[in-house]
Every structure is written in structure tokens, then in C-alpha cells.
Amino acid sequence: MDLATFLIQCLNSVQYGLLLFLVASGLTLIFGIMGVINLAHGSFYMIGAYMAFALAPIVAATFGGGFFATLAVGVVLAVALGYVLEWVFFSFLYDREHLQQVLMTYGLILVFEELRSLLVGDDVHGVKAPPLLSGSLPLGELMTYPVYRLFMSAVCLALALGMYLVFTRTRLGMMIRAGSTNREMVQSLGIDIKFLYRIVFAAGVAIAVFAGMVAAPVSSVYPGMGNSVLIVCFVVVVIGGIGSIRGALVASLLIGVVDTFGKALVPEVAGVLVYVAMALILLWKPDGLFRAG
Amino acid sequence: MTSKRLTLGRLATAATAIAAALAAPGALAQGASGKLKVGLMLPYTGTFAALGTAIENGFRLYVDENGGRLAGREIEFVKVDDESEPAKATDNVNKLIKRDNVDVLVGTVHSGVAMAMARAARENNVTLIVPNAGADAVTGPMCSPNIFRSSFSNWQPGYAMGEVVAKKGHKRVVTITWKYAAGDESVKGFKDAFTKAGGQVVKELSLPFPNVEFQALLTEIAATKPDAVFTFFAGGGAVKFVKDYAAAGLKKSIPLYGSGFLTDGTLEAQGEDAAGLLTTLHYADGLNTPRDNAFRLAYAKAFKLQPDVYAVQGYDAAQILRIGLDAVKGDITKKDAFAAAVRKAKIDSPRGPFTLSGAGNPVQDFYLRQVGGKENKVVGIASKSLADPARGCKL
User: Fold this and answer.
1) What is the interface pTM, i.e. ipTM, of the complex?
2) Which of A144, B15, B67, B115 would bridge B249 by S-S if both were Cys, CB 3.0 to 4.6 A apart?
3) Could you tell me the residue range of the domain that residue B269 belongs to?
4) Residue B387 lies in a domain
5) b/e per residue, B108-120, with b = 16+ CB within 10 A?
6) Which of A9, A124, A138 sits opposite B266 (nearest CB)?
7) What is the pLDDT of residues A183-231, one digit of tens each?
8) CATH number at residue B104
9) CB pairs under 8 A between A and B
């Protein structure tokens, strides 16, 4: 591997890592901070991607907007979806065993997949990147790099920074962190913890949906797409340390590097490398890299 | 211990034989006149649901064209949704064989599920017609006189493309696929033909199924600078690969060739990025033969849909069944005569006539197709009367 190829692979690693963070950060909120095992997280990502595909013509017809208008509408819908889901389903789960959470969220996966099948069908679809970002930059002798991928990376970094600031610097962030440590105590201090959690959950869903919508032009839109990201999201959250946003970012980048160079250098075992990395890290630090609290 | 097991085994065999003898008169009496039960084991939910439906539509179309009867016997369908789930396959197929007592099995799309069906068909001596799954083993090590395939083996389109790429004068090729049976077998076929013609596969890239993060491998391709790339992907992976290949700027400099599934049912999503791609498959748009035109018209009328390669395979599965049934006057218990007739027959398929090899796999023409608009238009025949080598089949 010469230097140019090495550098391009580094870029690929970072870019893939940031994409992973984008999807996994919502799971960090729901699983890491609220303590609910949410298998349906991949479904929210899938819903986002299908929204990018199915909403675009509707949004264009009503508001006359393009990709970014669709993103905005999608996020609003996602917050509403998250709010309702928390209210109807998840709010009953906080005190239950993890097994019951697994069962219910697995049920939700089936429901969402079936609804998707009924509403949009089982075909594979492509989503066009907005014209502004559809160009590409030359890279090395033969390759070019799509501008849209760079845009995605920028979005991920902005999101990471935003989440970090909200959690460490704002009153809301402080309440959420306190709530994840001790619900009852926070409640007894006069904070409406139920409402707070509903907001956090809605934010987690919105981030996953947003990730799906942003990723759609690159990943294309197909049935079962959520399931493949779900597992790697859990890996990221567990490696990073449950509940830590900084940890999720570091873990995402780490997985990006391991996966990219694994595929390039040792393709025979690329499929298991990520999990080997996870096992090693957990042996070294059983709580993950940056466990919160 | 061994001897005890042997005796038990013999006892069981004897008991089965007696039971069969007792049951036989009834079965014979029913033989050539009653309804013929066709067990359709196809995916009706999940990723391959559309394929399962197309296959069933094709099968039904042929049965309906013959007034709902094949060789004088009314056809009754028993359907099972296999969910493309290999873990449930054995249970599902046993339900059809033992509970529903089907006379013939038809299925399926997923290769892992099809392998379980082939195993059950062998063990229970039931006739099986595979209308899609391309696993080489079904007509390789798992082959049986009573197992037929109306589709293809994974090896075949790969081999046909190997010949094409060699003829175009490419010398150094990189292959890229998912690391699973269909991908490996397709690349194997490509390599067989391409190296035979003097070409060299300089790198075999793969990634775990169904991973779709191709960027690292595309960078490897760019660094290797081959004359051409051969690929096998299908469905969502195919869409993403074609788009990523174009976005990485490689489409301009390194021509991409693929097994037909790269561009089948995916063109809508691939859009401009697929334009001009060359693939090989046993069916294509624009064949414009009277047989194909008639089929397409009838299919479109019956189902308000355009047929695809899966519909053709379903249709031909029904044709195979009819040929066998005709030879035994509807009495499917005469397995030997049924199998012999099918292996001798020429099947008048919309794709063009084909025969079945000794191992039960189609010996058929593979078309070279080029993507234009939303169609895979035929540009010629890549490989004439191509037969799978049926490695490991002892028939």
C-alpha cells in the first residue's frame, strides 16, 4: 500500500466512522442514558431513509423545497413519532426487565418492516443527492471523492459538537445526566422527569431518522437496511462506554479504521475484526472506553 | 452398538416398506385422476417477497393457459412462506411433504433454503423443481434424478461473462463480491472462463454479506489499476455498489462487468450510474421472439405487471412439470419415467428453448445485455448452450 492509497483509506476510515457515529449517537441517548434496550433503533434509521425517498416528492409539491426541506420535514415528523412512541410504548418499560424491552422493541421492528412493505413496497430505491452537493473532487490518479460524503462528515461533526455542548454546558443536559444517574432524586427536586425522558427519546429517534435521511443518497434505500446498522451501533455504544457521547465518537472512528483497513489488508477475516476489536477492548476496559457517571 | 443400530435401521426400513405397500393401492387408485398437489414454498414476505410473487405468477400463468390442468390433472396449490429463512426451511418443507402430502415441490429463491429443500426431496423421494436459487450444489453434490432447476447455477452467468471479458481483450481483472456461496460461485465461473482464455484475475476482493460499505475496496481497485472489474451483487447491495463505483470516478476509467443480477430489478434506483453497463443472464429485455412477446403480453394482461426473469423461471417450472406429467399420464409416482422424459425434453421457454443436463440444470444460452434507459437490452449471445459442469454430481 503506497502513501496515497494509505491516505485515501484513512479518509475512508474517518468518513465511515463519522457515519457510524451519526447513527449510533441516537442509540447512545436511548440505550446509554435512558437505559432502554432499543432494538428498533435500526428501524428508525430505515424509516429515515424511506422518508428521504417517499417524502421528497410530497414536500416538493407542497413547499416547493428540495432535499433540505425534506430533511426539515422529516425531522419534525420524527420528533412527533418519537414523542408518541415513548408515550404509548416505552414509558411503560423503564422499570421492566431488559428481556421485556428486547421483546417489545423486536416486535416494533416487525411492525415497522411490515408497514414499510405495505406503504412503499419491497423494491430498492435510490435517492438523489442535492444538486449543490452532487459533484466530486479528484483524488489520486483514478479516483474521485463525492462532495456529498464530505458534507455528511461535516454534518456528523456538527452533530457531535452540538450534542457534546448540550450535555456538558446546558441546564437541560445537566438534568438529563442527573436523570440517568438517579431518576427518583431528580424527580424529588421538582423536575418533570417523565416529560424530560419523552424529549430525550424523541431526540434519539429524530437523530436516527435524520441519519437515515442524510445517508440515503449514499446508501440507497432497501428493505432490511436498518438491521445491518443496528448491530454495529450497539458495538459502538458498548465500546464507547454506555451513555458517553465522547466515547461513542471515539468508538465510531475506531470501528471505521478497523473495518476499512481490515477489508483492505486482511479481507478473509474482515467480517469478524470489528467484533474481535470489541472483545479486546472489553477485556481491557470492561465498562468501555469512557463510561459516563 | 453398530449392529444394534443396523438392525433397528433395517427394521425401520422394513416397516416403511410395509407401510408403503399397504398405502400403495390407495395411492395408485387416486393416481392419475385426482387433484395434483403442488407445494409452493416461496418467499412471500421479506426482501425476496417480490421474487416469490413473480415466480408464483409465472407458474400460475402456465397452469391457467392449460385450463388449470396439467396432463389431465387439476392442479391444487399448497403455499408456504419460507421467509428466506434457512433456519425454518427444514420444518417448512417437511410440513409440505408429510402433513400436506404434496405430489411435487416447487421452490425457492434463497439458496440456503433451497439446499434444505433438496435434502428433504432426496430423503423423501419427492420431485423438486427449483425456480430460482442458483446454489451450484443443488445440481452438484446434492443432485438427484428427481431434482430439476428452471433457472441457472451461479457458476453459469459468471462463466459467460468470463468469455466476454476475455474477448474484449482485457488481461488483468479484479473481482469483487460478497463472501458467500452465490458470490464465490459466480466469481469461480468467471475465473474458469477468463483464465482459460489467458486472462489473469489479479485480485479477488470480497466483503461479508450483506455489508455495503464499499469505499475501502474501491480504493483498492483504484490502487491496483486493473483492465476491468467483474462483480456479483444483487438487490440493495447491487444498487449501492453501482452508484458508489460511479461516484468514486472508476466507471470512467475501469469498465465494470457483472452477473445479470447487478442490474435486474434495480435500474430504477441505480439511475444514470448504471447506464451502459454490460451484464450476462439467461433472460433479457427486447428479445423480440414470438414466444417471448406472447408470454409478456399474457403476463401483463393477467397480472397488470411486466414480467421479469423470475416470472419466466416460474413459468418454465410449470412447463417442466407438465412435460414430466405428460410422459407418465399424470401418475407422478412413476418417478423414473417422469425424470427421463424431462431430461430428454426441449423446454419452449420465453427466454429461448433450453434442455436440462443430466444433473437437472438448464443448458441454455446466456445473453450479453447492456443497460439502456430502464431496460437490460440484449446485445448478443455471450455463451451458447452453456452447461454447468455439475461438479460433485454422481448421477
Assistant:
1) 0.84
2) A144
3) 155-281
4) no
5) bbbbbbbbbbbbb
6) A124
7) 888 889 988 988 998 999 999 999 999 999 999 988 888 888 888 889 8
8) 3.40.50.2300
9) 124
Please identify among residues 45-74 of chain A the ones whose CB lies closer than 8 Å to any CB of chain B: none
The answer to whether residue A147 neighbours chain B at the CB level (below 8 Å) is no
If phi > 0 it is left, if psi is from -120 to 50 it is alpha, else beta; for residue B392 that is left
My answer on whether B48 and B125 are in the same domain is: yes
Q: Inform me whether the C-beta atom of residue A16 falls under 8 Å from chain B C-beta atoms.
A: yes
Note the pLDDT tens digit of each residue in B23-81.
444 344 344 568 999 999 999 887 788 889 999 999 999 999 999 999 999 999 999 99
Contact B207 A270 (CB under 8 A): yes
* Region for residue A151 given its phi and psi (left: phi exceeds 0; alpha: psi -120 to 50; beta: otherwise): alpha
- Does B12 reside within a domain? no
Residues B147 and B184 in one domain: no
Q: List A residues 91-120 in contact with B (Cβ-Cβ < 8 A).
A: 114, 117
Q: Assign residue B76 a region: left if phi > 0, alpha if psi is -120 to 50, beta otherwise? A: beta
pTM to 2 decimal places? 0.85
Residues B252 and B206 in one domain: yes
CA-nearest of B28, B293, B264 to B157 is B264
B185 with B259, same domain? Answer: yes
Looking at chain B, which residue has its C-alpha nearest residue A124? B236
CA distance B60 to B307: 13
CB spacing of A144 vs B268 below 8 angstroms: no
**Structural domain total, chain B:** 2
In a domain, B61, yes or no: yes
Chain B neighbors of A8, CB-CB under 8 A:
219, 222
Shared domain for B343 and B256, answered yes or no, is no
The full set of domains in chain A, from first to last, is 7-284 (1.10.3470)
- Comparing CB atoms, the residue among B219, B254, B265 nearest residue A8 is B219
Residue of A nearest to B266 (CA): A124
d(CA B210, CA B207): 8
- How many Cβ atoms are within 10 Å of B234's Cβ, its own excluded? 26
**10-residue mean pLDDT series, chain A (293 residues):** 88 92 88 85 94 90 86 94 93 87 93 90 84 84 87 92 91 88 87 90 94 90 85 91 88 94 86 91 90 60
